[in-house]
Amino acid sequence: MNALRPDSRPLYAQTEAILMRRIAEGFWAPGSMIPPEPDLAAELGVSPGTVRKALGGLERRRLIERRQGRGTFVAAHTSERALFHFFRITALDGQRRAPTSHVLECATVAASAEEAQPLGLAAGAALHRVKRARLIAGAACILERIWLPEARFPGFALPVGREMTDELYVLYQRDHGVTIARAEERLAAIAAAPDDAGLLGLEEGAPLLEIARIAFDLQDRPVERRVTLLDTAAHRYIANLD
Amino acid sequence: MNALRPDSRPLYAQTEAILMRRIAEGFWAPGSMIPPEPDLAAELGVSPGTVRKALGGLERRRLIERRQGRGTFVAAHTSERALFHFFRITALDGQRRAPTSHVLECATVAASAEEAQPLGLAAGAALHRVKRARLIAGAACILERIWLPEARFPGFALPVGREMTDELYVLYQRDHGVTIARAEERLAAIAAAPDDAGLLGLEEGAPLLEIARIAFDLQDRPVERRVTLLDTAAHRYIANLD
DNA sequence: AAGTGGTCTAGACCACCGT
DNA sequence: CGGTGGTCTAGACCACTTT
Question: What PANTHER family does this protein's entry cite (chains A, B) (predicted)?
C-alpha cells in the first residue's frame, strides 16, 4: 500500500516530498512526462485528490509544468525560463533583452576562507572561478564573478574569449545535473574600482549596482555564488513585492 | 440560486472575485471575521470545496488570514506585515530592524507631467508630496520622497519634524481605506546629490541605492509612488528569486 | 461541548490535446 | 477517438480554539 503513514506531516506533503525526491534524483529526467495522476495515486496508495494537491505544490515551485490534455512534465531549464525568473535586469523602458556573455577568466583554485563560507565549503576546497562581461544590445554593462564548487561541477570550464549566448543555468542542468531552484540576492551601490570601470567604459568611482547572489539547488543546498556589477545608466534591476 | 453562471471563468475564480470585491469595498472590514466556509457556500450556491479553493487564492495574495479553529479574517496592515513584505532592507548581518521616520517636508501641490504619469493621473491633479529621512538603529541611512494622489488620500498630512514609528501603509489603510496589495520596484545606483549627501552625512557623489516604487491597491490601481535612497555602507536590499 | 478551518476521499463531468 | 489535466461536488473525519 503506502509506506507513508508513521509521519506527522499531512499525506499530501509526504506525497509531494516523495515526488520531489524522484525529480531531484533524476528518476524522472527534466523535460520528461511523469505518470498520470490516477496512476500515481494508485502507486502511492492515496486518493487522486491528494496527488493533485501534491502536484500543485510542485507546480507552484516550478519543478513541474502541467498542460491540460497533454500531461505533467518535469521542468527543464530553458533559456526563456532562466531569463524570466533569474535575470531581473531590464532596459529603462522595461524591455527585457537576452544578454550575451564574454568570458574573461576561468580557473580552478583552492577556496580562500572568504570564498568557501558563502557556499558552505571548507577553506581549501576546489572551486571554479569565472569572470565575464555581459552585453545587452551590444553594450557592455555587466561584469560578473562566479564561484562554483568543483564537487558539484567536476571538470567545469568555459571557453575564454568566445561569445556565449546560452544561459549558464541551462548548462548547469544539462551538463552537470544541477537544477537551480531559487536564489537569494543582496544589493548595494558601490563605487567602480579602476579595472572594473575600465572594462565598462566608465570613470573610476562611478556608481554601480552590486548584486550578490547565492543560488540553491532542488535540495536547497547552495551551489553557486555570483556577484554582478551593473551599470545602471541604461538599465534597472526590477523586483516585485507581493 | 447563484448569479454566477453566464461567465466563462471557473466557478472558484468567480467566487474569489466576489469575495475579493467585498473586501475591497469594505463590506468586510480589515481585521474582521468573514462567515464560515459552509455559510459562504450556501449563500453563493456553490459547494464548500469551491469556496475553499477561492479562499485559498485570497490567502495566497494575503488578502485574508485563515486560522484553524478560529475563523477566516480580512488581513489588516499591521506594522509587522508592512515591515516584512514591503520593507526589503536589512543590516549587513541580515537582521531586519524597524526604522523610524523624520518628516522633512509635506505639501499638497499640482502634479507636473512627470509626477502625474507614473500614478496614471492628469497633469495638474492635486498631489501630496512628502520628503522624509529614516533612521535604523539611530543612524540616518534612508531618504524617501513620496507622492500620493489627493483623490485617494483627501486631507492627507504628516506632522513635519516629529518622530514617527508607524508604518505608512498601516496609516493608509486605517485613515484612508487604502490597502496596499503589491508593489513594483526598479533599482539603480546613483551618485549622491549635494543636499541628499548632506542629509545622510556623506560626501557628494557617494554611491546610493535608488529604489523607485509604485504601489498598487486591491483593485490594482497605482496609489503611491516613492523613491527611496539608501546608503548601503551598512545595509543591503534583499530579494528572493523563486 | 460547540464551532472553526484542515485533511482526505470518491466520483462525475468538462476542456483540451494528439492521433 | 482515447487519454490527459481541470473543475465541481458531497461528505466523513481530524485538529485546533474558545466557551
Answer: MANNOSYL-D-GLYCERATE TRANSPORT/METABOLISM SYSTEM REPRESSOR MNGR-RELATED, MANNOSYL-D-GLYCERATE TRANSPORT_METABOLISM SYSTEM REPRESSOR MNGR-RELATED
